[in-house]
Specification:
binds ribulose-5-phosphate; 13 strands; Ribose5P_isomerase_type_A; four-stranded antiparallel sheet; Rossmann fold; isomerase; Alpha-Beta Plaits; NagB/RpiA_transferase-like; ribose-5-phosphate isomerase activity; 6 helices; six-stranded mixed sheet; about 25% helix; alpha/beta
């Protein structure tokens, strides 16, 4: 099984948690894109009804509309029943790093409010500790980026401003901010680090998602595996 197939079987497994009348947080990224398309197919076939999707980014909003999923913003719904999203790293306690797609702030706002947060990954994303392979993305107020990069050196982080691809200059988030990618030596206490990073003035949100995932569905070469907290 290749990586795309692993992502797809994880996405398919998540459909088992979807019921009529649900408000669903729609994450960002290539794995969640499979879920959004499959959810759209379910709606078209009449297998589920009265679904509302709350997208976490322009990417997921456009894809949800294209897939025939009715969408709303967070302030238009009373509650989020379930949220489904990908991740860049998952540690053994199901703490996450997210934000490669620069959508971490809306993802955290929506997913922290969900009745159930389901994470979809392929087996490459499982790590022994956070920051083993990937940096922590940090959304920052543009003017503050240099001061924050300097401040991150206290944590021995290698931090750099994320630059655009097919765009000159830095990546601009859906909220009009910059992203700093900070590679820490390792993160032993994700909750503590998540809180600490958010106390730096100018930081809008960071990509450590500690103690928030309820279920992680992993696509592996052998099939799908479900991890629960
Ligand atoms: C976007 C994210 C993504 O969910 C994460 O980067 C995983 O993406 P993919 O499924 O494409 O590997 O956090 O901000």
């Amino acid at each position: 099984m290749n990586i795309e197939e692993m992502k797809k079987i994880a996405a398919k497994e998540a459909l088992k948690f979807i019921e009529d009348d649900m408000v669903i947080g729609l994450g960002t990224g290539s794995t969640t894109a499979y879920f959004i398309r499959l959810l759209g197919d379910m709606i078209k076939k009449g297998e589920v009804s009265d679904i509302v999707g709350v997208p976490t980014s322009y990417q997921s909003r456009l894809l949800a509309i294209e897939s025939g999923i009715p969408v709303a913003t967070l302030d238009q719904v009373d509650a989020i029943d379930v949220a489904v999203d990908g991740a860049d790293e998952v540690d053994p306690n199901l703490n996450l790093i997210k934000g490669r797609g620069a959508a971490l702030t809306m993802e955290k706002i929506i997913e922290s409010r969900a009745g159930m947060f389901i994470v979809l990954v392929d087996e490459r994303k499982l790590v022994d500790y956070l920051c083993q392979k990937m940096p922590v993305p940090i959304e920052v107020i543009p003017q503050a980026w240099r001061a924050i990069v300097e401040e991150l050196s206290i944590f021995n982080a290698e931090a750099k401003l994320r630059m655009g691809v097919n765009k000159d200059g830095p990546v601009i988030t859906d909220n009009g901010n910059f992203i700093i990618d900070a590679k820490f030596p390792r993160i032993d206490d994700p909750l503590d680090m998540e809180i600490e990073l958010n106390t730096i003035p100018g930081v809008v949100e960071n990509g450590i998602f500690a103690d928030i995932a309820d279920i992680v569905i992993v696509g592996t070469k052998e099939g799908v595996k479900t991890l629960e907290r």
